[in-house]
Amino acid sequence: MSAQRTPRPSSGGARSSSASTTERPRRRRLRAVAKWTLVVGLVLALVAGGVFYFTYRNTEIPSANKAFEAQSTYVTYSGGKQRIGTFAEQNRESIPLADIPQSMQDAVIAAEDRTFYSNSGIDPKGIIRAAFSNARGNATQGASTITQQYVKLLYLSQERTLGRKVKEAFLSLKVQQERSKEAILEGYLNTIYFGRGAYGVQAASRAFFAKNAAQLNTQESATLAAVLNSPSGLSPDGGEETRARLVSRYDYVLSGMVEAGNLDAAEADRIAGKLPEFAKRGGSNQFGGQRGFMLSMVKDELLRMGFDETEIDTGGLRVETTFTRSGMAANADGVAERRPEGLKGLHVASASIDVQTGALIGFYAGQDYLRSQLDWATIGSSPGSSFKPFALAAGLQAGYSLRDTFDGNSPYEFEDGSGSVDNQGEGTGTNFGPAISLVTATENSVNTAYADLTDSIPEGPRKIRQMAVRLGVPEDAPGLEPNNAIALGSATVSPVSMANAYATIANGGVAHDVFTVKKVTRAADGEVLYRAPRKTDRVLPEDIASDVSYAMQQVVISGSGTNAQGVGRPAAGKTGTATNADGDVSSSWFVGYTPQVATAVMYARGKGNEALNGFLPTFYGGQYPTLTWASIMSRLMEGVEVQDFPEPAFVDGDAPEDGHAPYTPPPSPTFTPEPTQSPSESPSESPSRTPSPSPSASPPASTPADPGEPVDPGTDLGQPGNGRGPGGGPGDGPGDDPTP
């Protein structure tokens, strides 16, 4: 019988035993960690619950009426004390839910919060998503229930912070617990802004449909509910694109009502895509005069700066503007003093800019806002020869000087054979001589000399366009094309932009973006949300700017703009008269400045391009526009220190083209006394004195008419005559400079 063998433990079994021994402590450690994690988690949960309970219990619902009134945004004149107005009329009238049609209630729920009756008043996922999105600097996220919107509008500020979102959530929960869904919906419908200055459904129903809310039908209810998403962006008062967006939102509301079982699908199909008829928008005295235009300008600027629609209308902002009461009054009164009466369709617009800052201190938009919302101070027209100083600046920067000469004879044929330019006058236009200085060309507004200058500057049209944009003309101005005739001003530019571009020249070549908002403050806590930056940008050397100013001073002293002397202090400027495709005068301008303020004045008609000849008694820039400019500026400069312009530098670079040498006048004649005259005897007739040579000297014109701004024999406009043209000026031309 064989002996039994006892199996020997293998080396693998030994390793298994060792591993088992090692794993026991590890399991114990994991159990300990899990236990402490659970304990810490429970403690944190208890603490969080305690904090939540404490915060919830101590959250008090503030006074609704007082808080809501604090959300009105007020706009003030410069200085922040005198109010211009508000963006909304605060037209409100609360009514009970029983007087609000079921269709209106259903439409608002379908538009703004389709789970209104089942949710707890907040959307936690939406709050977290919005908070993270806002923290990353993305577009502001709402993600709010009707309860949250109601709470935010009634009790909170419009600040975009996580803290405000958290406070909104607690208040929403509190309101949800203490008030019924019906009470919340009633409060919301009596508080929310619909547009047209209407807060609440009753005011909105009257504003949009001229009826009480109780009479609203399904179409009207769905439309009002759709507008809530963006009272401005979905306004039925907007253009075709705005209306198209409103129709899309309106259809979305109808589909939501069908989905909730509150509207028959067949009825929804019948009215889909069909907006109801709207009542004509009524005017409000708070927008009368120029106030509506002022508020529109400011609102547009706030939107560009990043403030949203709700924040602007109901965010409790205090907006200090650049407008001054005296600046607005000077523009309105100056226009009223000079514009002829009884001419239907005449648009007179003006704008005044602070030279040192670019602030728009005053303007006149063309008419009362309640009559028409077209702002001619920002629409503009073709500035004609008042565009020439931009070409002059480009020419001086290219290397020419004020003394250099250009062709003043008419017509001028462009070198590339693309066409010709005429001066005003009989036949092919007035001849001023083959070589006139840039001062004379500017003073007398000689079209052919400026066409020659454009030809002579390397890439002239492009350089002139670049100069105009650098000085302040918008790059996207309609018609601002680099063509051979660009210096003659056929592009459409607004008085605001022209005044700002001239202000750059007056400021020694330092440009500012024109602006209307100085400061924005939140009323709730006084925090400054925005302050206008003091941006400066040198776009033109100071010596060139002083030379351009010198040439424009001669326009006022002895050229086409002598009526600007009525301001009673040193001034520089340029007249402008543009023509349309039919050869009719379509707009008439004067743009000028003192060292402190630049002002542009425009006369236009109809849609901005209709004939002024045969309509205005006299229609050139040196008459009504220049006289209006003087009336405005006399008021603006009252009590302001008289300042002189810098002396001209007469820069003289390397001219890019030969043939433009400075004009040299002929020598003065020599006079010999008659031999019979005794030394003590005075001659019976003093000889005519020839003026000493000056940078502006050039051969005398064959006719005294201004080739760019023709003399108008028209009408005396109320200033004493001086033999130089009607109303104390030379029409638009220089006339004969009397011998001193």
Number of helices: 22
Shape: elongated
Low-confidence stretches: 1-16, 47-59, 137-143, 156-162, 670-740
Structural class: alpha+beta
Largest sheet, strands/sense/barrel: 5 strands, mixed
Strand content: 5-15%
Helix content: 25-40%
The total strand number stands at 19
Radius of gyration: 37 Å
Oligomeric status of the shown chains? single chain
Q: Trace the largest sheet across and list its strands.
A: 2-1-6-14-15
The average pLDDT is 81
How far the N terminus sits from the C terminus, by CA atoms, comes to 157 Å
Can you walk me through this structure?
This protein is an alpha+beta fold. The chain contains 22 helices and 19 strands. The strands form 6 sheets. Strands 2-1-6-14-15 form a 5-stranded mixed β-sheet. Strands 8-7-19-18-17 form a 5-stranded antiparallel β-sheet. A 3-stranded mixed β-sheet has the order 3-5-4, covered by helices on one side. Strand 7 and strand 8 form a beta hairpin. Helix 4 packs antiparallel against helix 6 and helix 14 packs antiparallel against helix 22. The longest helix has 48 residues. It is elongated, with a radius of gyration of 37 Å. The N terminus and C terminus are likely disordered.
